[in-house]
């Protein structure tokens, strides 16, 4: 015998239906009622209440919403379920809350047509006490919702339900087609009527406008066509130019940096350079600064410092005015304890003097 795997009742992947549903109620509710009751038991997930719309139930069982409404009414009349209206907090619409009532023998069932507000006001503790959930593995009743291989498939009641379902689907389809054709006919007729009325109104409006225009033309005296008046051209006024832009100091700095400097610095530039700026000295300072950085427009160092105080000693060394940098620093000594440190201009003059003496000595030796 081949190894087969039987179902495991401990997993809990099942729902249960009372035997009385089959023995007592099947003849009353029919196969579709039994299937819908089983679907509600499955959706309740072991609880006694479930909330689901007609469309969801119809989609689950592959039937029409009209069939679901009829079957729900039958289950409610025989006392198997109770229906309570409640307001959905998310959508704001009323939904049905189905309560699975206790199943009793059909002849002793007092729930038939007696579901009142007492069932609607069930407290959570009472609901827990009457819960249909059980963990005992003895409950192994499974229901085949499709009923394809069940013995009920050949039941005449099941066959009649299927025929009724097909009839309901056919009626709904015919009603939809009738509504669509009726709406199309009404719409086309109304559109044609509106089109004809609009044409009549449009032609009447055009004729009235034409008559009114002809009447006005007859009343007007004949006058020559007046010449159009051309608007006078207004000359654009330019802001007066700053007279400082023609100052020699500003022109000299502009030629070096390629553009006008910031206007906020014009007065300072004029004070430093004066009416006759030293172009050679200014050019030397700018050239030295350009070798160090690309921001030639920064005037703080090469104009306001070097032009006034002279180039620093390290700058002459970088310009290769003397190849022996260390010797130049040794030759130019000063006593820091006896006198103050010389300025940059003094250092520059001393460097020039030493360079001239060295060049003269080299010429004499050669």
Give the SSE map.
Blueprint (H helix, E strand, L loop, with lengths): L18 H5 L2 H18 L5 E3 L2 H8 L3 H13 L3 E7 L6 E7 L16 H4 L3 H6 L26 H64 L28 H10 L8 H8 L5 H14 L6 H4 L3 H4 L3 H6 L6 H7 L12 H22 L1
Antiparallel strand pairs: 1-3, 2-3
Helix pairs in contact: 2-4, 3-4, 8-9, 8-10
Commentary on this structure:
The chain has 15 helices and three strands. It is mainly α. It has a three-stranded antiparallel sheet with strand order 1-3-2. The longest helix is centred in the middle third of the chain and has 64 residues, at 156-219.
Rounded average pLDDT: 70
What is the CATH topology classification name of one domain? Arc Repressor Mutant, subunit A
| Low-pLDDT regions | 113-152, 320-339
Which architecture of one domain per CATH? Orthogonal Bundle
Question: Rg to the nearest angstrom?
Answer: 54 Å
Biggest pleated sheet = 3 strands, antiparallel
Task: Tell me what portion of residues adopts beta-strand conformation.
Answer: under 5%
**CATH superfamily grouping of one domain:** Winged helix-like DNA-binding domain superfamily/Winged helix DNA-binding domain
Give the assembly state of these chains.
single chain
User: In one word, what is the shape?
Assistant: elongated
Q: What's the level 1 CATH class of one domain? A: Mainly Alpha
Number of strands: 3
What order do the SSEs take from the amino end to the carboxyl end, as H and E?
Answer: HHEHHEEHHHHHHHHHHH
> Treating each run of at least 4 consecutive H or I residues as one helix, how many helices?
15
Determine the fraction of residues in helical runs and give it as a percent range.
Answer: 40-55%
In the sheet with the most strands, the strands line up as: 1-3-2
User: What distance separates the N and C termini?
Assistant: 123 Å
């Amino acid at each position: 015998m081949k190894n087969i795997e039987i179902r495991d009742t401990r997993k809990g992947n099942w729902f249960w239906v009372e035997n009385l549903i089959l023995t007592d109620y099947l003849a009353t509710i029919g196969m579709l009622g039994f299937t819908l009751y089983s679907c509600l038991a499955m959706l309740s997930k072991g609880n006694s209440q479930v909330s689901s719309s007609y469309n969801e139930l119809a989609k689950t069982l592959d039937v029409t919403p009209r069939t679901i409404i009829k079957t729900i009414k039958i289950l409610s009349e025989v006392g198997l379920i109770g229906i309570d209206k409640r307001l959905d907090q998310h959508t704001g619409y009323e939904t049905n809350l189905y309560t699975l009532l206790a199943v009793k023998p059909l002849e002793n069932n007092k729930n038939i047509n007696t579901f009142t507000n007492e069932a609607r006001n069930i407290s959570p503790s009472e609901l827990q006490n009457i819960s249909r959930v059980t963990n005992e593995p003895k409950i192994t009743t499974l229901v085949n919702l499709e009923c394809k291989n069940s013995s009920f498939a050949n039941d005449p009641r099941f066959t009649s339900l299927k025929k009724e379902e097909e009839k309901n689907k056919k009626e709904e389809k015919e009603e939809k087609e009738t509504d669509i054709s009726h709406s199309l006919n009404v719409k086309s007729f109304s559109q044609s009527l509106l089109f004809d009325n609009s044409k009549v109104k449009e032609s009447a409006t055009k004729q009235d406008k034409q008559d009114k225009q002809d009447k006005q033309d007859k009343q007007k005296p004949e006058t020559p066509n007046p010449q159009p008046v051309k608007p006078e051209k207004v000359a654009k006024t330019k802001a007066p130019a700053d007279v400082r832009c023609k100052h020699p100091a500003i022109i000299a700095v502009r030629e070096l940096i390629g553009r006008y400097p910031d206007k906020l610095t014009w007065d300072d530039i004029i004070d430093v350079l004066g009416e006759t700026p030293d172009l050679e000295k200014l050019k030397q300072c700018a050239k030295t600064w350009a070798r160090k950085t690309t921001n030639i427009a920064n005037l703080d160092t090469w104009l306001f410092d070097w032009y006034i105080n002279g180039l620093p000693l390290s700058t002459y060394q970088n310009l290769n005015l003397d190849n022996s940098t260390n010797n130049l620093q040794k030759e130019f000594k000063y006593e820091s304890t006896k006198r103050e440190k010389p300025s940059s201009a003094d250092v520059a003059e001393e460097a020039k003097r030493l360079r001239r003496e060295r060049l003269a000595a080299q010429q004499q030796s050669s």
